[in-house]
Amino acid sequence: MILTWLGIGGLWLAAWVGVGVPLDLAWWPSLIVPGAWAVGIARRRRGWLAVGFLLSVGLAIGVGFGGQPIASLVVTALALWTWDLSHLWVYYPQRGDRQATRLARAARLRSSVLCAAGLLGGVGVSSLSVSLPFLGLVGGAIALWLGLVLLVRGVGRAYRAGGEASGNRSSSSELTL
Amino acid sequence: MATGKAKTEFTILVLLLVLGIGLRIAPVALLAFPIAIHLLGAHLLAAGGHRPRLVARRTLSAARVWEGQTVEIHTTVENHGSRVELLHVRGSLPLGLDLVDGTLDQVTNLGAKEVVSLQCRARARRGLYFFPGVRLAAQDFLGYMAWEDELPCPARLVALPRFERLVGVAIAPRRTLPQAGTAHSGRGGSGIEFFGAREYRPGDEIRRINWKALARLNELVVVEFEEERVADVAVVLDVRQEAYRGEGEQDLLDLAARGAAGLCQAFLAHGHRVGLLMYGTYLDWTYPGYGRRHGERLLGELARAQPGRSEVFAELRHLPTRLLRPGSVVALVSPLLPGDSEDLGMLAARGYHVLTLVPDPATVPAEGLGGEPEVALALRILQLERRGMVARLHAAGARPVVWDARYPLTPQARAGWRRAR
């Protein structure tokens, strides 16, 4: 929970720093972003979390437009991290249970690794200077899209229901008052 | 299948790609990279575990218990496939079973061939219970792929009504069966209770001659005792919804079922042939029989008694007398409805030996009623109405016993039905 709040605060601060630490009134509407996250976490609503994530990406785009691509990538990575952690907070029942804590720790580790990899990948790509023809870019995007769709379908097939059930093993016992 | 989270993230990724590439805005297109890597990585890691192949089993410590007893429920889920990162097992209890301790819900990580087991104890009230399946939700750590299903693992539990062993209930039906039993047959012969005296006929036992009468009348007179035989008994449990309306209706039906169970067992213990009719929804008739096994069968039938509604069986006048042997005993267990006393009177007038056990609804504790004067007044009116009905039953020869639920049935039944006639 604390990490989730750290993520929310961190992404907003990163965006603030990214746009040059402004103090004028035009900046303050950006507080809607942590506000949406806060509502989603407090009310355990996935919809509000999605709004928070979407607004965070919007904030990152804004930072990117300000000419700070690294800062915008940091904001996006922190948004993804917060997105994962807030879902963990909303979904994981039996908080406090040792097993649940262990699972949540594993999930946090995976999320951190993926976000860090995404950030590093983004930073790496931003430092590259490749000239691609427009059609090549479009083709690449379509290939990426198709790849993702195929991946999602493949995983969906892997997770299709295939459970078995077995019946009653009840044993009768003597009736005693 | 992909979850809402994955779909949301995928949509944002596509939007960023379309905007960034379509409008040639590099900062926007750049943001797609971390999201794409995050999404791709999460999906690849989620696909590491293949199709969850789970098997659920449920065992109960007993298939039959007495009402109020606890039963241990043990549910296991075994993973026959590869590792499931996050498994949420959600069991549930049928309505009427109260969880005493243990858990029905667990989140765990289940490796291949591993087993997760849930154990709980539940207290059962009277009833027949069919356990629902176990709901399982599996997903990866970050919730990108999810699988949800219900594995049926049927189990059946019967909570039999507790009953008192009634003693001292005497019956004297008009017709009896040929076997020797305890019901007063209304015929002279061998027995215990004095029946009458008549003149000696050849073949009479010498020990039956009343010597004092011989001395007084100078005639041979023999003493006869009332023959005791086995009788046909139909125990009728009233399950009409109308009779069990209001607060604590289930408690009242449980009480009535206990009374019916006590009567069935008492009559069976005396060797009578006992049938059971649950009157209210449909023709729920258990054919008459004898013995312990039949007694257990009747208890099982009483366990599943639930109030029901039917236009046909709304009044007792439609009691299917074709099922009841003429002149037999009809023991009705009912809180009574207006008009029932007249119908029972007609039944008695047709030659049936009618016994009526009336569980008093006013004595069944109802927590939601409160102690307002209006409630007290309503209860008083209810009691007066019931007294009127009971008085009419007395007059009609339906031999009512009003059962005060706060006290055991045995002394009340003995007081009301001690004498056969």
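Chain B has a mean pLDDT of 86.
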